Amino acid sequence: MNEAVNTSPAAPLFDDERLANLGIRWLIPAETAIFEGSFSLLHCQVQGDTLYRGVFAVLLFPVSHPNHLISLRYQDAKDKEQEIGVIRDLSQFQPDAQKLVRDNLRKHYYELTITRVFSVRHEFNLLFFDVETKTAGRREFVMPWRSDRTEDYGQNGKVLLDALDNRYLIPDVTALPANDRRVFTRFIYW
Amino acid sequence: MSADLLLHRIPEAVRTAAEAAGFRDGELLFSVRSDLDLQGGGAEVWTIVSPTLIASFVVSGESAGAVIGPHAFAQVEKVRARQKVGSSFLTLRIDGLYIEIARYSNTRREYFGRVAIFLQRRIEGKTLPDSYLEKPSELICPVCRLPLPGRGAGCPRCLRGRGIFVRTLGLMRAYWMSIIALLAMMLAGVGLDLIPPLLTRTLVDRVIQPRTHLDWLPIILLGLVGASAGRALLNIFIGRTSSIIGTRITRDLRERLQKKLLSLAVDYYNRNSVGSLMSRVLYDVDYFQSFVQQVAQGFLLNLMLVFGIGAMLFYMNWQLALLVLLPIPFVVIGTTFFWRNIYPRHYRVWDSQSKTAQLLSGLLSGIRLVKAFGQEQREEQRFSNAASYLQRSRRNLETSVATFNPIMGFIFGLGGLIIWWAGGKRVMEPNGITLGTLMAFFGYMGMFYGPVSALSMFSNWVTGFLSGGQRVFEVLDAQVGVTDRIEPARLPAPRGRIEFRNVTFGYDPYSPVLNNVSLTIEPGQFIGIVGKSGSGKTTLVNLLCRFYDVQEGQVLLDGVDVREIAQEDVHRSVGLVLQEPFLFRATIAENIAYGRPDASPEAIIAAARAANAHVFISRRPAGYDTRLGESGAGLSGGERQRISIARALLCDPRVLILDEATSSVDTESEQEIQRALARACKGRTTIAIAHRLSTLKNSDHIYVVDDGKITESGSHEALMELNGTYAKLVRIQTELTRLEV
Questions:
Q1: Does a structural domain hold residue A190?
Q2: What is the reported pTM?
Q3: Chain B residues with CB inside 8 Å of A106's CB?
Q4: pLDDT, greater one: B438 or B471
């Protein structure tokens, strides 16, 4: 038996057991209750564990896996952020629990999605954007013209950080109307 | 006062609801407006704070009319501004839970940060004045509302209002004699440029065509040679003079920038990358040389030529002159359109070049890692992508130029054909113009389109110059931050007593890293500081070295506030040994004597001996004269660290700070360094920050820093007995050491 163990292919590096040994706990619906508690805050009770109040959710892969791998966290008595565990697939949970987590995620992330780019003007090494957003209508913002003020978002998307760190998302630059894309890539070409 | 902040007053938009909730005008502390509701919808939300109550009222948006709270202020344990991704929350801790009272976009982060601190201080029983809330923004220009390039930096728009051109001319004031000479030479040059076509006309009309005055031929040719030689001579002088002025101005400017950069606080370097500052000193300054060249050989010269040649054309024949002007609108429009489109392509080439260079530099410096992980193929692919980007960028630029230039040539050619057609007809008419005049016309026409084309590109140069100039003046105008008093206190012989008295400090003033820290270190004591990464250990050192000034409280050296002491004395009193020793490209002796360049060789040897560095230095063929490579290349980590200890010791500081001095070396080197330090620390106040707690066992006193506060303090034994964080860390490390063994 020992011989067989030594010659068999290496066990998966990050199987559930090993991850559990590393302190990562998967939150599964059968063992996890997610509900709204006092002050309308998210609460979480994991079987055999304490009740966590004031829980918040964080996406571990916000771009590549926005519906999976969601970390539930809380603030301990010393104000330190601690992880309760990770939800691998939110869709496995009850619809009301899913809604609570999604609502909570909406609190964690705030980005205005750009649908049109009307103009980009360059002055003082700043870019003056005039854009249409999905939820906030037509907006103007100013962004320093530096590559560190943009983040890649997936294959073709960009997140623009304005001068005050507000975030503007273009999920897919190639999906912009041709003229908007030309106006945009004239300055954001990296 | 901002319309987003009302002191002691309920905003009219929510008056009814606020009064119903128990708020009254005059009894309020303040009302503050945010731009999001808790769900992240755009909304006008007022958070109203009285000495007893706090609540938010939504005016518009999906949840209009909603009230968040009210909460009794007496129940609030803490107030925090909690940063999320793209927005933040003002939160209250009640019964151990953080409750969101308002949400705001990052546009309002600055003053909500102040609101959080204002309220937290109030809970702690320390009242801040109303003026704290009303402080002007450090992120937005108070005059034109343009976002500033950095916290507290100058506004590029207002700076431009003061005139980058005027300021640049001011830089040239010292060279006004040369500038006048330059202008005079330019005028003479334009005059000389006008001569050859006139002589050509005389040659054709008076000599060649009528076959008379053959004796004029050599004189005219001599005149042509003279004009040409004179022009060449003037060009040499103009080029040399403008180069002398330009290079002097750029040298002066680079020196001023470097001096300014040395005077700026460490904080400035946190806000600006080293690469961007280097680019300003090395490349942006070159715009100022090009300014001189533009004045000498560009804009002014071309303007003079256009007017001079234009006048001559009209003087010779105004009808033909009008025809010469025909292609001008096309040239101007074409060039302007071209440059507007080509300008960003230049940036793209620059960007692709710099990205390729970065990639290659990262690849070469991390070559061992690449090989160790067998990632050569992946790196090949990454470089191939960068090379393709560079190729596409260059191709884009060059194909545009390759298309534009022939088109412009064609338009100019058309201008010539029009003159051939109209001028030729006029030559053949009985009372028309002479062939010489036509020839002269062609001469002038060739000289005319060039400057016109150059002038139409001028706006492009101006854009580049203004942005480069703005970046340079931005550094020159930056606030120095940490400055000496007019008559600072002097500490010629410090004893080394250190006190932190109620110190609060944050690199972002609204997110404190140290919270109300107090500690005292007696002269000659060896103090250990322990804590997790980011707990605030190095910040304590940064404040003692006066790299930053505290926001609240005091740091005292020998009982004197470090802000009162001349920085020179503070830096002489405090020696610093960092985790990553920085060595210059110089000899070992020069590196050791960096803080005391006048040190004798004997003193250098003594310092090296004290730092356990003498033996390995003397084994080298060139001994102390060994020239080190970049960042001390050629030495091991432990050797570099011992040289940096010798450097600190040579200055004989009363206070020695060891910031993770042995963290990045192997055990053997660590023992060598520890032996050196044991000797070096004798008689000095020593502050050692260390992760390896074994190195602090013999400290007189150990402080445990956690989340910006001193959470434990005492001797090693006392802290072990306390069985708190320190004891836990020691146990973990002992276990780790046991496992390693």
A1: no
A2: 0.65
A3: 39-40
A4: B438
